[in-house]
Write a structure and sequence with these properties.
362 residues; mainly alpha; 2 domains; globular
Length: 362
């Protein structure tokens, strides 16, 4: 068994392996770095979303209550979008005759556009069902997505995927193993193993973290002016612009017939357009007919002051609760000391005097 575990763990993509029953495909199950990083990104993104909701005066538990449904919808949407894009691109890798291949995320990958789209739909449905502010949830969720997606891109580097064309440099770029090469770059005579390729996953990660940093700074610096939904619009614009540019460096994305643009770039443009519409609506410059009007500047400031006041009340209530608990424990300790003194035959008056502060005795 140990030999099988060592052999399973030999790949650089694998973090570790565990024994696995034969009837489930054993004898070992590989746990990949990509999966670990993706799970870490998802958790940290959700952690931020919960904190974001808390800053806006809502119970952070609503994020964890919605977490499973939103995550499930996002994973399904990301996978279906990836498969659909591959099918449109002309690949024969997927077929309804092999349905397990469609849901097997280890065969191929997922696409963030589908994940964000399906996840947003899940958030809207959940918010309506629970009568919550859907714009606040999408703001928090998409800000968290920037963190999670950025961390997940490190897994793409470990897998040597989503890279760009050769850099033409002897020092800048990433090495890509022969087994991970695609298209004409499999020709080792023209592109030897020491060829360096553009690490586009790091370009995108840098853009995602930069976008998060800028939006987070703006949000925390001007929170009393940030109407719910503005961060959603800003995310869509930034994500659309960033992905549109980075797609020119991606080698794995199918192009639209007779065009230099990929299907993901088309989705990026749609992101950008929707983001502009949402941002204009949330700023009061445009009206989306079927969506309730956003708060004006005065209403937002009043709402924010209410958030601060409620936070102060909760903090004061917490301090009072801690003080009551401290006094209760002090009374219990005094009672125990008196009981112990009585059991030892010490006069009650001496025990009470021993419990008094020194200043009081004097």
């Amino acid at each position: 068994m140990w030999e099988q575990l060592l052999q399973c763990s030999a790949s650089g993509h694998v973090a570790f392996c565990i024994p696995w029953p034969i009837f489930l495909g054993g004898p070992t199950l590989a746990i990949y770095w990509y999966g670990i990083l993706a799970a870490t990104g998802i958790f940290l993104g959700a952690l931020y979303a919960a904190k974001h909701v808390d800053w806006e005066g809502e119970n952070p538990d609503i994020i964890w209550d919605a977490f499973f449904w939103v995550l499930l919808a996002a994973l399904v949407g990301a996978r279906l979008w990836y498969v659909l894009q591959a099918v449109i691109g002309g690949t024969g890798e997927y077929s309804f005759a092999r349905p397990l291949d469609i849901i097997n995320t280890r065969q191929g990958g997922m696409n963030i556009f589908g994940g964000a789209f399906f996840g947003a739909i899940a958030i809207i449905i959940y918010a309506r069902a629970k009568r919550l502010d859907g714009w606040l949830l999408t703001d928090a969720g998409l800000m968290g997505l920037l963190i999670g997606q950025g961390i997940g891109r490190i897994g793409n580097f470990i897998n040597a995927e989503l890279y760009g064309p050769p850099t033409g440099s002897s020092w800048f770029g990433m090495f890509v193993p022969e087994g991970q090469r695609i298209g004409l770059y499999r020709d080792l005579a023209m592109y030897p193993l020491d060829t360096r390729f553009h690490p586009t996953m790091f370009y995108e990660a840098a853009w995602l973290f930069l976008t998060f940093g800028v939006l987070f700074f703006i949000f925390r610096r001007n929170q009393e002016q940030i109407v719910h939904g503005r961060l959603t619009g800003a995310y869509l614009i930034a994500a659309g612009v960033g992905r549109f540019v980075i797609e020119f460096f991606r080698l794995d994305q199918p192009k639209m017939p007779g065009s230099i643009f990929s299907y993901s770039q088309l989705a990026s443009v749609l992101y950008l357009v929707v983001g502009v519409i949402v941002l204009l609506d949330r700023m009061g410059h445009f009206r989306i007919p079927w969506i309730a009007r956003p708060q004006n500047a005065r209403q937002r400031q009043q709402a924010y002051q209410s958030i601060l006041e409620n936070r102060r009340k909760r903090e004061l209530s917490l301090l009072r609760s801690k003080e009551r608990e401290r006094r209760r424990k002090q009374r219990e300790l005094i009672a125990k000391e008196k009981a112990a003194a009585k059991a030892q035959g010490t006069p009650l008056e001496e025990a009470e005097n021993a419990d008094r502060p020194v200043a009081e005795k004097s």
